[in-house]
Amino acid sequence: MVDMNAVRVCPVCGVEAMHWTDEPLLEEFREGTFEVTGFTYEKCDACGETLIRGDQLEDVFQAAVATARADLGRLSSDEIHQLRHDLGLTQAELEAQLGVGSGTVGRWERGTVLQGATADRLMRVLWAHPELLPELGYVAREGRGPYRTRGR
Ligand SMILES: [Zn+2]
Fold this sequence. Notes:
By secondary structure, the protein is α+β, with helices and mostly antiparallel strands. Helices cover 38% and strands 16% of the residues.
């Protein structure tokens, strides 16, 4: 059992000012800084360093991404998952359509990474207009997806 009242030496600045807190965490994204509540972690009063347990990190990122998406009006994890299925695409195929790196769509669907404004809008356009998929220049493997190549 952890003594929540204990103050210990900060491993970063060396001052005995590291203590437990559950005050809101601030997570920075390109779009701004978002508050995340509901986590207990250690914080140094001297240098401001925060120590978050490794097994809490994914939960903290997910909470921050969910807050940012709600504030910015971006698609949720469930919506991204749903539109990908509606379009008949694997994660790798959606990445190819959007021109984003390998593994990106999985991180969006797990909610650990915030999708950018451009990708968000492009996904909304594709969701509403799946006939545009081949226009992006990416053609699915034969037998996959509801689209076909255009004869030129
Ligand atoms: Zn410190």
